[in-house]
Design goal:
The structure holds 2 protein chains of 2 kinds. By secondary structure, chain A is mainly β. Chain A has no helices and 11 strands. In chain A, the strands form 2 sheets. In chain A, strands 2, 4, 5, 6, 9, 10 and 11 form a 7-stranded mixed sheet that branches. A 4-stranded antiparallel sheet of chain A has the order 1-3-8-7, with no helix packed on it. The model of chain A has no long low-confidence stretch (mean pLDDT 93). By secondary structure, chain B is mainly beta. In chain B, a hairpin with a 2-residue loop joins strand 7 and strand 8. The chains are: A mainly beta, B mainly beta.
Chain lengths: 112, 117
């Protein structure tokens, strides 16, 4: 098991609501990436944070936003939830932006 | 844009036998990493093995080894002495080190491996 934790493990929201997902970094890791994994698909890159700054973004709209804190933990915020946002959200941490990524257990989000 | 293709949606193997999972990728970059990750039903993505593109020697980790063919852009995973605990989705992933998408992983769609007793 990695030292990466995510909360909550499961979440149910309704369309239009907002959600915040959390990720605690493995010790010594200053970089975090977030991924969305739809059912039956590989994960898709949302964005990466390095030392509290956004360091790259995938093809996701601005209603997906993030934060990284001084202790390198991170949040993913999604506004105006849509049905298609239902997915497993994974965070991965690493000791530098091109390092090997170690994943947390994920948060399963269901939007009704 | 880089792409990763896993052409085997599902595979099965008998316990103790050997199985090979295929992966091809497309990139114009020369410096990159390749990975195999395993995702059991518990859903946590677990690193299996990493290969640096500049290394000619194929990476190995215990029962897991890769066949990295850089010119052919092929990166297959061989699992020897398969165990029931190897049952999982296996994802091949690419990381560009210096291009515009540096630092993020590009995944294939995965291969579902079932190990049968």
């Amino acid at each position: 098991e990695t030292g990466v934790t995510q909360s909550p493990t499961h979440l149910i929201k309704t369309r239009g609501q907002q959600v915040t997902l959390r990720c605690s970094s493995q010790s010594g890791h200053n970089t975090v990436s977030w991924y969305q994994q739809a059912l039956g698909q590989g994960p898709q890159f949302i964005f990466q944070y390095y030392r509290e700054e956004e360091n790259g973004r995938g093809n996701f709209p601005p209603r997906f936003s993030g934060l990284q804190f001084p202790n390198y933990s991170s949040e993913l915020n999604v506004n105006a939830l849509e049905l298609d946002d239902s997915a497993l959200y994974l965070c991965a941490t690493m000791d530098h932006p091109q390092g090997t990524q170690y994943f947390g257990p994920g948060t399963r989000l269901l939007v009704l | 844009a880089q792409t990763v293709t896993q052409s085997q949606p599902e595979m099965s193997v008998q316990e103790a036998e050997t199985v090979t999972l295929s992966c091809t990728y497309d990139t114009s970059e020369s410096n990159y990493y390749l990975f195999w990750y395993k995702q059991p039903p518990s859903r946590q993505m677990i690193l299996v093995i990493r290969q640096e593109a500049y290394k000619q020697q194929n990476a190995t980790e215990n029962r897991f080894s890769v066949n990295f063919q850089k010119a052919a852009k092929s990166f297959s995973l061989k699992i020897s002495d398969s165990q029931l605990g190897d049952t999982a989705m296996y994802f091949c992933a690419f990381m560009d080190l210096y291009g515009g998408s540096q630092g993020n992983l590009i995944f294939g769609k995965g291969t579902k491996l079932s190990v049968k007793p």
